[in-house]
Amino acid sequence: MGKSINLIYMWKVGDNFTANPIKVKTLQLLSKLTFSDFGGVALYAATQGNVSKDSLVKALIELEQQKSE
What we know:
alpha+beta, 3 strands, single chain, 69 residues
């Protein structure tokens, strides 16, 4: 029997994190119109075993925030 893998993805545009692609494009458009940011960052995480989606999301956000400090 194969192993299961938990995979999550999200984007960061400015200070906003979301997994909704429509919201990402809206945030990118608004940031370009206001000349505040161009683009965004795609974030991915994968684990094996019993790890909750919420803990993966929290870890990704914390790691990204540490990088930008």
